[in-house]
Amino acid sequence: MADGDLGRRLLAYLRGRLDEPRLEFSEPPASVSGGFDTRIFGFGLRSGPPAYSGPLILRLLAPHLDPARALREGVIQNTLAEVGYPAPRAVLATADPGPLGGAFLIMERLPGKPLIEGRLSDIGRGCCAPSRGKTWPRRWRGRRRSAGTG
Question: What is the pTM of this model?
Fold first, then answer.
């Protein structure tokens, strides 16, 4: 699907879903680099509900992927944001491939680098390892091993 067609289909879907017939793009969908197995587009809306008022990201899953993945990713994104992790909130997630040819999520667009571009070795630092002066939970004591060591 060409980007222009994607934009028309996305706008038609959002007008119906949000019951906002005057909804327009303030910034039409433009491809964003990244996305291991999804197509990613940045866009903006005019005259939409508050949750849709800032810069947005569309993550469009490939048609061969499990459409329920979009729903799972939406829950994960929102859970991370709720506990204070700097993750964009998903404002919409659908497993229906009909509107755009694949399941998709619409998320807030936050400044910064995608996690994959960061230092992956630092992901667990501060959230999974015990802090100074604290101990591992009893069930984990004595089990600290490198990945793949059995």
Answer: 0.74
